[in-house]
Structure formats: C-alpha cells, structure tokens
Design goal:
single chain; 5 strands
Length: 164
C-alpha cells in the first residue's frame, strides 16, 4: 500500500529535500503552504505539477497558527506520516515577536497532535517534530536530550537583553 506523507514547512530547505526523498520512495506527498501576497515556492517549483494533473505531490493552504486549517488538512488526507518542519525559526525575529513565535512553533505542534487525536489517527499516523540546535543557545555541540536546555536559554536571553 502506498504511504501518504504530510509536510508542514514544505517550502523550506528541509521540507523541499524531504519531499524529493519521499517522492523517490513512491510516497504521495502533501505539503502545507501559508497564504501570502507573494509566492515562496521556488524550492519546490521543479516538483510541483498543476493540481488538475495526476500527481503524487499536492499542496494545501494552511497555517500552524490556525487550528481549523490544521485539522481540516489532516482530516482530509489522513496521512501515514506527518513531518512538522514549519516554524518561525529566525532567532532575532523570535525576540522581536515572541508571542507569534511561540504560537507557531509550540502551539503549532500542539495543534497537529490534537488534530491527530481528534481524527483518531493515533495508531495510524507517525509524527516527526523537527527541532533546531539554535534552541540550545551557546551550548557546545553535540547537543542531546541531556543538554541543559533551560540554563542555555536563560543565558542567551540575558545576553540578548543586555545587548539587544
């Protein structure tokens, strides 16, 4: 049976690479893009096919800050795998708009997980949550689940407030 994947953050570098990888493995790949006044799809333009043509690559409008759009997409697709690569990931911007960053990065993940639960897909759908080493601040690599996260974040925030 052919697997179906759903990728949030498909227009980013990792989302574009992941979609090509999964297409080569014969997956049906669905990607979520935000509506905006300008298109930001150049990383996936070469694999995008007009939606009226038969294709294993499909795009949907949605936003991690909108529970209903996340739920509707997951309910419609019922994917075997969900990859959350979507985020507001620019460090300086995260300090300039911290509430928006938390809304998309933290609550966005919660919205996906809640939608999986609401659609009763817990036993069907595997979920992957991307992270970044940026969240460890100046901790020396390699970081792991044992890296002292809170200390590093507090030090980074303190440094930013002194110089920002």
């Amino acid at each position: 049976m052919q697997k179906t994947a759903l990728i949030f953050g498909i227009t980013g570098q990792d989302g574009a690479y992941l979609s090509r990888f999964l297409l080569k493995k014969k997956y049906i790949v669905h990607g979520v893009i935000r509506r905006s006044s300008s298109f930001n799809t150049e990383r996936i333009d070469d694999i995008y096919v007009d939606p009226h043509n038969k294709s294993n690559f499909k795009l949907h409008y949605g936003d991690l800050s909108d529970s209903l759009s996340v739920l509707k997409i997951i309910k419609k697709i019922k994917p075997n795998e969900i990859y959350n690569l979507g985020a507001q990931s620019h460090v300086q911007v995260s300090f300039q708009v911290p509430e928006y960053t938390a809304n998309v990065d933290a609550l966005g993940a919660l919205r996906i997980l809640d939608s999986i639960k609401t659609c009763k897909l817990e036993n069907k759908t595997k979920y992957y949550q991307a992270g970044t080493s940026e969240m460890f601040g100046k901790a020396k690599p390699p970081q792991s689940e044992k890296t002292n996260f809170i200390q590093e974040v507090l030090m980074e925030l303190q440094n930013y407030m002194l110089i920002g």
